[in-house]
Amino acid sequence: VKEGRFHNWLVDARDWAVSRNRFWGTPIPIWALEDLSEVVCISSVEHLFELSGVRVTDLHREVVDEVTIPSKTRPGEVLRRVDEVFDCWFESGSMPYAQKHYPFENKESFEKGFPADFIAEGLDQTRGWFYTLMVLSTALFDKPPFKNLIVNGLVLAGDGKKMSKRLKNYPDPRLVIDKYGADALRMYLINSPVVRAESLKFQESGVLGVVKEVFLPWYNAFRFFIQNMERMEASGRKFVPSLEKVRATKNATDVWISAATQGLIKFVHQEMKAYRLYTVMPALVSFVTQLTNWYVRLNRDRLKGMEAGEDGTSAEEEAETGLQVLYDVLLDVTIIMAPFTPFITEYFYQHLRKLQVSFKDAANGGGSSNPVMPGKSDSVHFLKLPSYDETRLNEDAVLAMSTLQGIVELGRNVREKRLISLRTPIKSLTVVLRNPSPVVVDAIKGPLKSYILSELNAWDLVVVQKENEHEWVKLSIQPNFSLLGKKFGKKMKAAKAAITSMTHQDAVACLEKGELVIEGVNIDTKTEIVSKLAFSKDGDHWEATSSPEGDLVVAVDCTQDEAILSAGKSREFMNHVQQLRKGAGLDLKDEVEIFFCEDEGIKSTEDAVSRNVPLFEAKFKGAVPVPKQFASNWSVVIGSELVEVGGSKVEISICRPALATRDTLETDVSSYLSTVDPTSVTVGEVIKCTIDGTEHSLTEGKDFWISTASKMKSTKVVDWL
User: Fold this and answer.
1) What are the CA-CA distances from residue 704 to residues 260, 546, 641, 679, 682 (Å)?
2) Within 10 A of 471 (CB to CB), how many other CB atoms are there?
3) I want to staple 678 with a disulfide (CB 3.0 to 4.6 A). Which of 24, 79, 202, 657 is the partner?
4) Which residues of the chain are under the pLDDT cut of 50?
5) What residues have CB less than 8 Å from 487, skipping those under 6 apart?
6) 217-234: buried (b, 16+ CB within 10 Å) or exposed (e) per residue?
């Protein structure tokens, strides 16, 4: 708007007739004889009093038109106010001065606040308010009346026409707010072309999209934090927010999300200070996606207390560290988003503030206390935007995580190409990076490797070294025709052939050198050549894809052997167990025994389980699924379902934990043991009881076992346990 629309209007500006022939309007303060031979322009009420002897307090036309001024050139005659009134845009353009009654009052206050830091209005004011403000300010002070001008576009109906009450071509805003919430409507508009002074065709589905794609994932991340924080506290560990623990974490994803949060805070301050509002909301929305789709998902098991640290820290310590980081990020994002989505952020803040040490100081209206701070302050809207922490900014961590995301997304694309389910493992993943920094390579091969393998369900990850690139990819280069066409002219065809026929090694060499000479013409390979990596290794078992920029290639070994297929079936089995647990309303801490039953003569599921016992032990805290025929008679089924695993029908049941007894144990003794809670028994424990006058001494691991799987393992009923 500044360089185009407004600039062009100023260049071609027509004369502005500031007068209008109407009754209603601000009277033009000019008094004159009828033939205009004597004209006086009145500068103030006091000036009018001096010349007319009449002091007016009402400046409306019906009052001032009655005032006359004696003529100085023609004694006996009087000057009357001219008939015209001001164009209303003259009044609008006078706003900065009129609102302060300048220069008659508030002179110091006006001069301190002029020009205004910013003004905001719609695109249709380019030739109206923006123009008249500029004209009057330039005439009076020879400078603009504002430092920054924020222009919004027009919100049109879905059909591209203006919204019309008569046509009813738009949804009722009140109904939209009732249905989706004011925050969703606000974010939809703030994150639209309107803030870039472009038109928006309003679509109610866009508001729904904000709820589904931003608010629900954001709320789920918040709820996930609350649930796991409460789980931690239920185990006896009090959660107290600690910035020291956040700064001390060595986990690669913790370091990344912390760095990304601080980078976001810095960016928001930077852009808001420069009044580039159109860049802020996309960055905030993108960050919420990074938080929910990447950080929380990658750390789900860790935050649940199911994953110990690689440095030997316990699962509970790892969970607390992750929750500290997640809390810190959620609080910062809540405060940053508050001006844009005031209601949902207030809801989040009211829950998050209770964990702050300063919350106890909130009594008697702590929000009005000084200084304001999270916890003590009664509302998120009392808080200032957080300042960024320079020490936590980490470009290497952000770049490494961006590379991880690129690898994972390309890996998923490859799976889709070959129709390989995510539950079926892949043997190996090979990655070729174009000129990566050593820090990124170390991160991908080191702390981030396990996340990539987990996300893509891969068994191995190989990052190809630069000297071996030619075995996997070809660097194809193309001329930038828009730049080189002028240089080569008719020789362009020959130049293209010479460039595109280069070998991988030659292409790499010329790009590293930075220049190339063809037909006696120097080419700058940084700007005049377009390069892209392409997979070139032979073998039908390979499937690969490249990033749009051509700087990353991911290749997957799609070999499907028995080990791969059985692991895939095991993943399917696990998913069905999780669905049964969810359907039964079980918590994470609730333990179960898992049984399965196949049709006679079919052992597809048992074979899969037998090949992947460690996988099940890790997933279900040591509980390995076993055939239902070995279950105790007193096992209580919590949930059961007939499902398909690897194309074979199987009944899966989850049961309440129960002791398993020796097959030869007396029935009444077994009946007694069926009443004992397995969680109260330790390995090797001896239980003594008296039944019908007979004393019994029963040893765990000999007469009974903590679970059916433990019994089967001890008695070698099957050879795979």
Assistant:
1) 54, 58, 29, 14, 11
2) 11
3) 657
4) 367
5) 521, 523, 528
6) bbeebbebbbebbebbee
Write down the mean pLDDT value for the chain: 90
Nearest to 574, CA basis, from 422, 461, 714: 422
Q: What span, in angstroms and rounded, lies between the C-alpha atoms of 494 and 372? A: 70
pLDDT, one tens digit per residue, over 29-85 is 999 999 999 999 999 999 999 999 999 999 999 999 999 999 999 998 999 999 999
> Which residue has 């209580």 as its token pair?
636
> Which of these, 467, 468, 456, 466, lies nearest to 554 by C-alpha position?
456
User: Rounded to an integer, what distance in angstroms lies between the CA atom of residue 86 and that of residue 17?
Assistant: 9
Can you tell me the distance from the alpha carbon of 148 to that of 157, in angstroms, rounded to the nearest whole number? 29
Q: Single out the residue of 582, 574, 649 nearest to residue 614, CA to CA.
A: 574
Backbone angles phi, psi at 650, to 5 degrees: -150, 140
pLDDT tens profile 678-720: 999 999 999 999 999 999 999 999 999 999 999 999 999 999 9
Helices then strands, each counted (H, E), the chain = 29, 26
H or E element: which one contains 495? helix 492-500
Do the Cβ atoms of 320 and 240 come closer than 8 Å? no
Q: What is the biggest distance separating any 2 CA atoms in the chain, rounded to whole angstroms?
A: 139
Q: Provide the strand spans (E) within 391-508.
A: 428-433, 461-463, 473-479
446 token code pair? 């080191």
Within 10 Å of residue 164's Cβ, how many Cβ atoms?
10
Helix, strand, coil abundance in the chain, percent, nearest 5: 50, 15, 35
Single out the residue of 457, 454, 473, 455 nearest to residue 465, CA to CA: 473
Per the CB < 8 A criterion, the answer to whether 461 and 425 are in contact is no
Prediction pTM value:
0.82
Residue 539 corresponds to which tokens in the numbers above?
Answer: 């073998």
Of residues 318, 442, 338, 421, the one with CA closest to residue 381: 338
- Cis status of the peptide bond prior to 171, with omega within 30 of 0: no
* Pair 479, 495: CB distance under 8 Å: yes
513's CB contacts (< 8 A; 6+ apart) are 525
